[in-house]
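Recap quiz, item 2
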Amino acid sequence: MLEYKNAQVDLAPTKIVAVARNYRAHAEEMGSPVPEIPTIFLKPPSSLIGDDGVIVLPAASQRVDHEVELAVVMKDRCKNVSAREALDFVMGYTVFIDVTARDLQAEARKKGLSWAVSKGFDTFAPIGPKIVAKDEIDPHSLDIWLKINGVYRQNGTTQDMLFPVDELISHITGIMTLEPMDIIATGTPEGVGPMVEGDVVEAGIEGIGVLTAAVQRDR
Ligand code: MG
């Protein structure tokens, strides 16, 4: 097995809770209905890589997509919190790429199976380059974009989130306890598409910074 020089992540979350279809235009591009309540799934902490890491395309997939997302990093343990108090439990925000094996996901959707395979490979969760404290930015008025080899592929605004951060936290903590450092990936705007070996991916959010990743095929 090759050693990939992936930057260590200074975060040790117990889980990454990801939100599906939290932007109308992305739900439409996927041919999926706009959800009435948040739709969540889990990515394993073992999928995390830091800034300047390498996304490894697994042999099992012929199509691996980028999804740039605003990530919420939790500060305190919480359960059953109201939307009104939800932000009290947040440490800050960072940039996240919800890397997705789209062909495996499509197959799973067709068969009614879980997304764990399509979303859970090692290196499928680049995060960084830093956490910006909660009070420094408004998470719902930020430009969010992703470039491959310098060309824009996604270019949206977090204003278009269907469910805002406080409502997501309230919904999620009605189901599971969130622990310090747990991550919520809040969904992607439209423009998702494939990455191939040799690509350089830059994902940016206004007020936070740019997360960079290289792309390599597993061999
Ligand atoms: Mg996503």
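The chain has one domain: 2-217.
The pocket of magnesium ion is lined by residues 18, 67, 69, 98, 187-188 (CB under 6 Å).
End of item.
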